[in-house]
Amino acid sequence: MRRYIVQRLLQGVFLVLIVTTIVFFLGRLTGNPADMVLPEDASEEDRQEMIETLGLDGPVHTQFFIFMGNALQGDLGLSIRYRQPAAEVFFSRLPNTMKIVPATMIVALVLAIPLGILSALRRGSVTDRFSGAIAVLGIATPNFWLGILLIYLFSVQLGWLPSARMGGFTHYILPTITLGTFLVAGFMRLIRSSMLEILDSEFVKLARIKGLSEFKVIWKHCLRNALIPVLSLWGVFMGGLVTGAIVTETVFAWPGVGRLTYEAVIFRDFPLLQAVIIMDAILILFINLLVDILYAYVDPRIRYT
Amino acid sequence: MTGETVLEVRDLHTHFFLRRGVVQAVDGVSFSLRRGEVLGLVGESGCGKSVTALSLLRLLPKDAARTVRGEVVLDGENLLDKSDREMRQIRGQKIAMILQDPQTSLNPVFTIGDQLQEAVARQNGAGRGSVMQRVVDVLRRVKLAAPEQRIRQYPHQLSGGMKQRVVGAIAISCEPQVMIADEPTTALDVTIQLQYLQLLKELQASTDMAMLFITHDFGVVAKMCDRVAVMYAGRIVESGPVREVFDNPAHPYTQALIASVPKMRQEVGLLHTIEGQPPALSDLPEGCRFAPRCEFAEARCQAAYPDTFHAGEEHSASCWRLADD
Amino acid sequence: MRRLPWTSLIIIGAMIFMAVFAPVLTPHSPTDQTLSDKLKPPFWEEGGSTKYLLGTDIFGRDVLTRMFYGARVSLIVTALALSVGGGVGLLIGIVSGYVGGRLDSFLMRLVDAAFAFPAILFALLLAVTMGQGMKTLVIAISILLWAGFARVVRGEVLALKERDFVALAKVHGCSPARIMATHILPNVLNTFMVLVTLNIGVVIVAEASLSFLGAGIPPPTPSWGLMVAEGRGKITSAWWLSLIPGIAITMVVLAFNLFGDWLRDRLDPKLRQL
């Protein structure tokens, strides 16, 4: 088990290094970031100055080593818009994202597991059709548009819920639904299809032959197996979660890391975007590690290979 | 060696109701099992052997399959009248079953000990030591080496033969009156098939339980069983003591099955095979179901399903040719 | 067997029709501003007229016209991104699966890495460094797609290369490149087509999301995602600006997904789990 975790951790570190390298070269090779940041009518003097502040002078490989060296010391450059170290800006926004993303994931799982299992158990029933329809719609509706639709319905038309910014409990409802729908839909479909396979398996038959109660058969023998694909296909959800967080925080003016990413894009704040991506990679490293550990806990076949 | 009847199956009909029609998987099967006896249920795959077994335990998928007629009498009570709760008591306490494929019969995410303990813990055998002690004991009985270590391991860490021993242990852990073994060695390596059969025979003999042994292999029947029932297309076509059926098979299908068992000194070229395919169970012929493949088929075989005739003491078969004797 | 999803086909057909015949279908320009006619509601609302069936935006541009041209952008991006991203994935999948060995494990490591890190972040970075535009968008979405294609195609190839006709070709002295091109490639095309269809919805959503985030085709060229973004600030007074293109996105993605499901069940049911 320890070897497995160490191995996964090293893979994660490797990934962060790759991402950092790609970010570095993507910035330098596809154009000069200074031109992105400066207004079109900037003077050559301004341009040179910007190139220096962004660390874009000198040969690329020296730039790269300076960049990596600084990054390792936690210096990811200065945000142009905020005139602060980019990493600091990131950390000032992180708590707000943490208030919404983990909670949404838990809500999504709590909803999707019983719904997926129930749909599989009562195939073709009203529950199954209803949750199937929700899943298909949820996958086809991009988060940003769902968020705006919810704002239109519940804030503009009905006036029940606030449409933007942080605040009390009610401020969490619409962003959670916006971010969570995709997750619920995806989890539910995955759990349903794996449940159908599991219900057909020999080990479930044997559990019934042993005379176990249906409750134990489903919630002990099936559940743990049904969670395996959710964990092994985690990457797909991670992508959706990051996109979802950026979009949802943008739509609801939620001052988190996702909204910060959006700001970095529209204000062409290259150093900030660069820092956000690298920090995201580190964050993802830890989340993936957590998922890997959970995966090994759920599926013993992973642990001993 | 054989005692009173423990399980009696009378005129069992189990049908599958599918979108494309009704499949008569089991169509009027009757047999009885006595204490200490091994009854072989033999036939090609798809003839309804496994469905018969699962019908007894009432474990077929509820939405598709239904036992429409018949009785399954255990200890004087009809299992088909039992509630789901009562049925759960019977499964794993009075009737146990070993499935075909050990690779998939055990849950991959739980330890051997955990999966055995579920079966053992349901026995209210007070004062017989802790549950885990009993788990270890039962693993010893199936001759699994180092049981104390095995209980902490997961199925993927065991070989196929070891897993099937664990499945056997689950089956005997509650000391059932009836054990159903559904092709228990088909998925095992040839080298360990014989060992496992011996183990099953020993366990059966020492506990005096009745065993329904399902197989497609007449060679295995000869080793394991006291009596045999031959099944074809949802019905039992011949049944009787193994020796008698072997020496004097009355039904042409049984004759063909026995002839297809390779014997040591027989030349390979003479190996007998049965021409054609069994009929689709959703579209059965009016008369004898074997008639389309039978070399002795006559007009009356197509006209009506044959009655059951005696071919000896306790030996009977459903074939019109016996009517002439 | 599932029935052909007619509703989906009609929606898809309508979208393609709109995109192809956009200039013929409408008298308006998608980009010219008519400020005197700004924020007109759809014709059935009070103050609306049949001149602008679905109303106008803050610059007085006809929403329906922009929808037609937006469909064009969506389809062009989808076609290009699937050709580039899907093509690269197909190539890598075939080479990785057929050649095997170290190259295979290296490429699959890369695929794993691509799965472990959300491509959207690279897409956003590209938009900043390369500038917004069609080229950026296509590259960005291709980064999102290639790994999925590569993984599935490789799986197919692993099974294919054990088959007799490949062994036969080897015995006849075919070069690996030739075997891959003439024996492996035609046999994975079915799977490839299913993957393409299943990913159309993904690409449309990705394009719309990137446009929404200011990383898509730059304004004033209309795109459905951009239209939703532009109308967002006016949601209280002019709901049609955001909601109409949003509904269009959902309907089209739904149609492509259902069609893709049907095609998969038809051609390649074992892809079910994906």
Bulk shape of chain B: globular
Number of strands of chain B: 12
Q: The CATH topology of the domain at 86-298 in chain A is what?
A: MetI-like fold
Low-confidence stretches of chain A: none
Describe the oligomeric state of these chains in a short phrase. heterotrimer
Helix content of chain A: over 70%
Would you write up a description of this structure?
The complex is a heterotrimer of chains A (305), B (325) and C (274). By secondary structure, chain A is an all-alpha fold. Chain A is built from 15 helices and no strands. The longest helix of chain A is centred in the middle third of the chain and has 30 residues. The mean pLDDT of chain A is 86. With 325 residues, chain B is α/β, with parallel strands linked by helices. Chain B has a domain of 77 residues. Helix content of chain B is 31%, strand content 25%. In chain B, the strands form two sheets. Chain B has an eight-stranded mixed beta sheet with strand order 6-7-8-3-9-10-12-11, with helices on both faces. Chain B is globular and about 65 Å long. Chain B starts with a strand and ends in an 8-residue tail after the last strand. The mean pLDDT of chain B is 85. In chain C, helix 1 packs across helix 10. Chains in contact: A-B, A-C. At the A-C interface, helix 1, helix 7, helix 8, helix 12 and helix 13 of A face helix 4, helix 5, helix 8, helix 9 and helix 10 of C.
For the structure shown, list the relevant keywords.
heterotrimer; A: 305 residues; mainly alpha; MetI-like fold; 15 helices; B: 325 residues; alpha/beta; 4-stranded antiparallel β-sheet; 12 strands; 25% strand
What is the fold's blueprint, element by element?
The complex is a heterotrimer of chains A (305), B (325) and C (274).
Chain A: H1 2-29, H2 33-37, H3 44-53, H4 60-72, H5 86-98, H6 101-121, H7 126-140, H8 143-157, H9 170-199, H10 202-209, H11 214-232, H12 234-251, H13 257-266, H14 270-298, H15 300-303
Helix pairs in contact in A: 1-4, 1-14, 5-14, 6-7, 6-9, 7-9, 8-9, 8-12, 9-11, 9-12, 10-11, 11-14, 12-13, 13-14
Chain B: E1 5-18, E2 21-34, E3 38-42, H1 49-57, E4 65-74, E5 77-78, H2 84-90, E6 95-98, H3 102-105, H4 112-120, H5 131-141, H6 147-150, H7 160-172, E7 178-182, H8 190-207, E8 210-215, H9 218-224, E9 227-232, E10 235-241, H10 242-247, H11 252-259, H12 299-303, E11 309-312, E12 315-317
Parallel strand pairs in B: 3-8, 3-9, 6-7, 7-8
Antiparallel strand pairs in B: 1-2, 1-4, 4-5, 9-10, 10-12, 11-12
Chain C: H1 6-20, H2 22-25, H3 63-99, H4 101-116, H5 119-130, H6 134-160, H7 164-171, H8 176-212, H9 224-232, H10 240-267
Helix pairs in contact in C: 1-3, 1-10, 3-4, 3-6, 3-8, 4-6, 5-6, 6-8, 7-8, 8-9, 8-10, 9-10
